[in-house]
Amino acid sequence: MKKLPTWHIHIQGLVQGVGFRPYVYQLARRAGLCGWVNNTDDGVHVEFNADPAAATRFYEAVVAGAPALARITAHRLAAAAAAGYDDFRILASESGGNPVLLVSPDLAVCAACLEEVHDPRNRRYGYAFTTCTQCGPRYSIIRQLPYDRENTTMAPFVMCPACTAEYHDPLNRRHFSQTNSCPRCPVRMTLFDNREQLIEADQASIITRICALWTAGKIVALKGIGGYLLTCDAANPAAIQELRRRKHRPRKPLALLFPSVARLQREATVGEAELRELRSVAASIVLVALLAPAQSRLALPEIAPRLSTIGVMLPYTPLFELLLQAFNEPIVATSANASSAPIVYQDADAAAWRELSALADYVLTHNREILVPQDDSVVSFSVHARQRIVLRRARGLAPLLDSRPAFAPQTTVLATGALLKSSFTLLHHANTYVSQSLGNTDNYDAQQVYAASLRHLLALFQARPAVVLTDQHPDYFTTHLGQQLAREFGSQLVRIQHHEAHFAAVLGEHDLLAAAEPILGVVWDGTGLGSDGQMWGGEFFVYQHRQFSRGQHFSYFDLFLGDKMAIEPRLAAFSLGHQLDDAAALLRPKFSAAEWRNYGRISGKKSIQTSSVGRLFDAVASLLGLLDKASFEGEAAMLLEEQALSYFKDSSTIPLSWLEQQAPAAFSSQSLMAAVVTRIAAGTEKAAIAAWFHVRLVVAIRQAAAIHQCHTVCCGGGVFQNGLLVDLAVKILGERHRLYFNQSLPPNDENISFGQLQWFARTATAAAP
Ligand SMILES: [Zn+2]
Ligand SMILES: [Zn+2]
Predict the structure, then answer these.
(1) Does the structure show a pLDDT above 80 at 408?
(2) By residue range, what is the domain housing residue 281?
(3) Are residues 762 and 735 in the same domain?
């Protein structure tokens, strides 16, 4: 018999923890090939004997039919040194100490595992930690790479003979399933009260006990994938009010966990896109429109005060599935934390216990450790254009990025992001990782979690950044940490303007950094430090020849009382309106005589000015009497969007007079405010004024696009979390312009770290030959 040549395939990307080796094994067996497959820290390697035609066929088949969860970033077939094989094997993993891999996000429980959990004849019947190669925790439990059991927090669990047999059977769904366990070698739950007294240890009884506690109006902390969730009966207003009191969260909407899609459809309109998102492996919280709030038995005024949408999710772990099937009604499920503190995730820790016991009446814990804390991700869709808007990117989505920019330097680059909605981005071996949402780094605990998550990811890849990128703001925690890391690693340090980073994030997500035509960037947010020392936030940029230039901006107005202005919409209204005669009458009642005098004095000093569109939303909301003091960031904008949406519900056409061009006043914050006040004085309905304001902002975009003769327009910044604004932009500008929004990343400051990287990459790439 003629000896067959030997071949080698190398596949890179997200190829571990997704059943890749068993897949290759089965394919090779079916093709009658002999050789081996293994995992190393630079991906999957396959070596085999075949004639050239069969080798190519096999190679193409491996790449084309890869498991659904895999993401291949590079692949190669090459001739190898001659070796003779007489069967096909899966070899043990090898580690060379320099990981080049994509780390998988945590995956929602799969349909096959759910079926087993519900099947009384199956050995995993009722087992709350059932997983397989297609589902279960990943990023949250990985201590080291490659992704093997001993490198995860599953290491202490010794598999029983049945699980071991599955693990070693190449034809089993759980072949090399690193999270494998069953009721005979279990991850164990324990239910405590908030004084750390053991309440229940029997696994099946725990489920019924918790349902009884919910029925009795108790708040139960449940250990999930990324940390603890606080839960209570969604139909019990008193329990929800108590939960809000303990969390110091008076009005910000709470998410609900539903037992099923059918139950959800009795409460809300669930479109195709929403359903796909709910059922995806990320299983995010999705915003949906309420159907008939008046007829609901849920405590909606307590869940989402004054709003017509709610955030919902479906059970994404077998534990949640078992609990929700038993309870059969939705529960409130929100991150266990107080106000802006990070999610609680370490139960062995005394401080965490103190925090949990102050938040919950009962605590359900389990002994599988969480290494990387993550909140649930939140996604919404605009009503008309159906634009996907990620509001928070965490569990299920991080740290992987769907949109890989086509070019990236080989240098290791770390970008540290901004302040309030923080994240970091790491570029390493041309792979881009964007961290989970790490919250408000003004908060000390959030700073600790941010730093720990960053160190963890650097350690996973043994990455030493050659370049560190930070915001230009000198006082952000992330700026300080970036400086410290740059010193530690001897890296180059580059500071990047906040709004240029936002713009670069949209350009990068859509691979537009090398575009030849001029592109208009519309960047509207709360505030970020501008290059002229003022606080920007209503910006138009032009991007061409890989350079950013600032074009128009909304005219400056006084920024006073620092951060207080961001949480008191009445102050933005005061800043813009107290010198307008008609506005003063509206504003006076919102302030005491002393406040009025003081604010009048300090606001005239023009020490710091802002162009923030976020503050314009605040001012209009306050003038319309919607909100004077916010309880969370963005509350005023949400209420104004609600008003405007109610206008377009009744009349879907935009009055032509609203669409008239109005240069140069289009960019005047003061004229915009004066026009709002005139409308209020004329007795125009709130909803119509709110709608007009939204349209007017889009008209300003059209104006800027005309001035700079830009056909392509990128919109970013936290203001574009507003789905109505996105829809109006698409409706008014969509025919003549190509519009881009953030796609995989949130439009808010969570994208700053990625934007900083793109900003840097554009010049690094331009400089390359
Ligand atoms: Zn599964
Ligand atoms: Zn077992």
Answers:
(1) no
(2) 189-366
(3) no
pLDDT in tens, 460-487: 999 999 999 999 999 999 999 999 999 9
**Residue 619: pLDDT over 90:** yes
Helices (H) and strands (E) in the chain, counts: 24, 29
Annotated catalytic residue within 29, 30, 39, 328: 39
Give the list of residues 6+ apart from residue 76 with CB closer than 8 angstroms, or none: 9, 10
Question: Tokens 């603890």 map to which residue?
Answer: 228
Mean pLDDT over 84-108 rounds to 82
Q: Give SS3 for 211.
A: helix
Q: Known catalytic residue: 742?
A: no
Report the number of distinct structural domains present in the chain.
5
Residues 688 and 572 grouped into a single domain: yes
Helical ranges in 588-626 per DSSP H: 593-603, 613-623
CA of 113 to the centre of ligand 1 (A): 4
| Residue 39 is among the residues annotated as catalytic for this protein | yes
| Enclosing H/E stretch for 396 | none
Instruction: Copy the structure tokens of residue 392.
Output: 């928070």
Report CA(172)–ligand 2 centroid distance (Å). Answer: 14
- Does 272 fall in a domain? yes
CA 335 – CA 224 distance, rounded (Å) = 10
The structure tokens 């997983």 sit at 131
Asked if residue 497 belongs to a domain, the reply is: yes
Residues 590 and 707 in one domain: yes
Å from CA of 389 to ligand 1 middle: 28
Here the tokens at position 476 are: 């952000």
Residues 628 and 644 in one domain: yes
- Residue whose C-alpha is closest to residue 48's, from 30, 72, 69: 30
Considering the domain architecture, whether residues 698 and 684 belong to the same structural domain is answered as yes
pLDDT score for 663: 66
DSSP state for residue 375 in the 8-state scheme: P
Same domain, 557 and 702: yes
What three-state secondary structure class fits 639?
Answer: helix
Q: Calculate how far, in angstroms, residue 111's C-alpha sits from the geometric centre of ligand 1.
A: 7
> Does residue 224 lie within any of the structural domains?
yes
Q: What is the CATH number of the domain that holds 43?
A: 3.30.70.100
The DSSP element (H or E) to which 355 belongs, if any, is helix 350-359
Asked if the structure places residue 98 within a domain, the reply is no
User: Do 262 and 307 sit in the same domain of this protein?
Assistant: yes
